[in-house]
Amino acid sequence: MIINVLLSFMAFTVLVIVRSRNLFGVVILGGIYSFLMATVLVAMDAVDVAMTEASVGAGISTVLFLGALYLCKSEESRPVYKPWLPLIVSISVGAVLVYGTLGLPEFSNSGSPIHQHVVPRYLTEMKKEVDVPNVVTAVLASYRGYDTLGETTVVFTAGAGVIALLRRRRRGSREDKA
Amino acid sequence: MKHDLILRVMAKLLIPFILLFALYVQFHGDFGPGGGFQAGVILAAGVIFYALIYGLPDARKVVPEPLVESMMAIGVLIYAGVGVAGLILGGNYLDYFVLDTNPVTGQHRGIFWVEVGVATTVSGVMLKIFYMFTDRGNVDE
Amino acid sequence: MTTGGHFTYFITVFLMIAGLFIVIARGNLIKKLIGLGIFQTSVYLLYIAPGKLLGGTAPILSDAFTVYSNPLPHVLILTAIVVGVATLALGLALVVRIREAYDSIEEDEILSLDADQAHRKQEQQ
Hints:
The structure holds 3 protein chains of 3 kinds. In chain A, 69% of the residues lie in helices and 0% in strands.
């Protein structure tokens, strides 16, 4: 299936990111990874999420990383000693997680609990109550409107935080930066 | 980069369509994929593209800093304002069906204004963060 | 066909442990942030993959289709992506300030500079 092929590409890209030491190349590979992720999401019928991931992950994220890289003067990371303990910890965590996913229902199983309870109610009652064809927009803006209010506030807070951190330096005040 | 002919011409051709596409994604979010977040990010990406090609002083003249900062806050206020309008007209906070005599039309109105608020905040924040990062390199002024 | 059906979950776990490895094993702060982003995208996959129905379509109501993929994870992940980029922007702003204060973005160099400063302060007292 196309999903498996794309997922293999993503795994290979991540392997190259782990091994590579040139930061500029790593940032560009991150952009490629985000585009592959957006394609996988389209193949999984998540079109809203794919558009958001493509624009935010491959667009804005890459621009921000390049901006920060320009300010940090793009030094390369150098491995000092072999990372055996993190490797063992990661692989053991991965083994436990794989054992956990064996209990998940099969891929594309319409009898699993995720498709019961509240989702059939949304899909059938949507025409009477809201009459907006895009189910994701209707749920995001109307049924779960509080969560979206909180998310907008989080975005605003991030902007305010960046303003507080990166305000323009005044000349002569480089010593008393805490 | 503004002395490079190909980049300049392509930017002049593409940027109006990018901004138009952002508006399309915003208002067509009810009928297809889209919505406030995607539209805000695409709008910010169009302005960032302009800033990359034509330089930051020109971009600051087109989209000045006070406008961007007020866009950040006004989006959240629009969203909260829709909620307060629901309170005033008789329902609970963020109830949409009281916004009109026909409850379904009230839902449409509520969703429309909420998405406008979200797009404004997201585009303002992304653009402001870009301005801050590029501004940090200049230390004297 | 269970192992073939679980290939998506295996790749998701692989991406998760690759992101975790980058965060805990690499010292460069910007690379750590990229590893965090990879970890986050693997979590998005973990949420959206169980919602897909083969033969279904995107959750946009229309008279031509009857089977839709589950729209509820899409809503959650949409919020998660935007919150993820907000925290990424704050993290990068912090990295820029660290770079200005310590003149390096390698974790071990920053820790040794801090230890030297604490040592010197202790000797003065």
